[in-house]
Amino acid sequence: MNSALHHKERIVEFVRGIYGPDFIPLHRPVFAGNEKKYLAECIDSNFVSSVGQRVNDLEQQLASFTGARFAIAAVNGTAALHIALVLAGVRPDDEVMTQPLTFVATCNALSYCHAHPVFVDVDKDTLGMSPTAVARFLEANVVVRDGKAVNRTTGRRVAACVPMHTFGLPCRIDEIVKVCSEFGIPVIEDAAESLGSYVGERHTGTIGAIGTLSFNGNKVITTGGGGAIITNDEEIAKRAKHLTTTAKRPHPYEFFHDEVGYNYRMPNLNAALGCAQMEQLPGFLETKQGIARRYAAFFSGLGIPFLQARAGTRSNHWLNAILLESKAERDEFLRYTNDQGVMTRPIWTLMNHLPMFSACQRDDLVNSLELEQRVVNISSSVPDPR
Ligand SMILES: *Cc1c(COP(=O)(O)O)cnc(C)c1O
Questions:
Q1: Chain segment 103-156, per-residue pLDDT in tens
Q2: Half-sphere exposure in the Cβ direction for 203 (13 Å, CA)
Q3: Is the pLDDT of residue 1 over 80?
Q4: What's the pLDDT tens digit per position in 349-358?
Q5: Is 238 designated active site?
Q6: Which atom number of ligand 1 is nearest to the Cα of residue 102?
Q7: How remote is the CA of residue 105 from the centroid of ligand 1, in Å?
């Protein structure tokens, strides 16, 4: 029997070999660089809030790291996604295609626009949106009228498509962008989990029209809470900065706001933390890759599927994941490992299984339904060097 449940003691022993004898969280942040120094400088400067040099510095560093022309820092990844959707032209009563296998923030953000999610299935190898499912859905349900993609069943406009790079595994984003472009539908990449993940040499989040990042406490790098919009489009970048800063016209002392904006700009304190984290990001990615390699070899020896980036792509190895054989086996494995102080977690409940999204239109979701029962995340932190 090559099941994870059968090998549960060996798995816990292996994880303890990497992380030691204490309680092992799924993913904890590491503050081993200039965090305290930059935070102290920030406090000493009095610029702790939404104006300050660290915010600009972080944006520069994010643009340079991802290769995006522009990066706009925000209070969190959900807010970044909200603004990205507004800028892609999502309006009340529009529909937005997304995957049911995601963190709830993706669907919350499009609900803030009063748009309706439409769920299309994921690929089994990437856990990300399937271009085949997108094409199938569009061909069966959507017609282009006067340059607008219209869902024939509901009569609503399909205004955007939001795929997600699950756990840092790049989805088939080129194919998704291609299919959507045939219907004139812009793609927003939810790259909250994939800072440091690449398709070929291109960073995730830079392939669709707009990408969004998150720096929540459990992500690859953290600013406490934070996020960013990345784009190559100068007009979108300008609008993103404007909308996230209360739509205030820049002026040394006058207050003039030319539309309803949002107080979504990342504070300087958070950006100070982010600048210190960015310095360590290449090291974090290298360490995470080493750990993922060890896991891959170990699980392959046990005959247990360990999820890995598809050919031609690179994962940041944000969260490592294995596939169990059934929900019953998964539940037993989760109970055992968490009892042992080795935190493990099932993948999210599908969005269409949550009360507020249960009535949304969807395709058969065959892969999502199976993955919901079988995927388990295992310890993925960078071991704290202190
Ligand atoms: C973390 C995350 C977000 C954004 O979360 P915030 O906590 O608001 O920064 C969005 N989408 C996905 C898939 C995420 O994992």
A1: 999 999 999 999 999 999 999 999 999 999 999 999 999 999 999 999 999 999
A2: 23
A3: no
A4: 999 999 999 9
A5: no
A6: 13
A7: 5
Q: Is the CB of 94 under 6 A from ligand 1?
A: no
133 lines ligand 1 (CB under 6 A): no
Q: Which residue has the tokens 């690179």?
A: 314
Among 124, 148, 219, 238, the active-site one is 219
Is the pLDDT at 371 greater than 60? The verdict is yes
In whole angstroms, what is the distance from residue 81 CA to residue 348 CA? 19
Task: Kindly give the distance from the C-alpha atom of residue 229 to the centroid of ligand 1, in angstroms, as a whole number.
Answer: 12
- Structural domains of the chain sorted by starting position, each given as residue range(s) with its CATH number in brackets: 4-29+280-350+373-378 (3.90.1150.10), 35-277 (3.40.640.10)
User: What value does the mean pLDDT take over residues 191-204?
Assistant: 98
Is residue 17 within 8 A of residue 381, CB to CB? The reply is no
Cβ atoms of 351 and 107 closer than 8 Å: yes
At 37, the amino acid letter reads K
**Which contiguous run of DSSP H or E holds residue 74?**
strand 70-74
Predicted confidence (pLDDT) per residue in 170-196, tens digit: 999 999 999 999 999 999 999 999 999
Q: Which residue has the tokens 């990449």?
A: 189
**Better-predicted residue by pLDDT, 49 or 195:** 195
Cβ atoms within 10 A of the Cβ of 350, count?
21
Q: Residue 370 burial by CB count (10 A; 0-12/13-18/19+): exposed, middle or buried? A: middle
The CB of 308 under 6 Å from ligand 1? The reply is no
Provide the residue type at 117 as one letter.
P
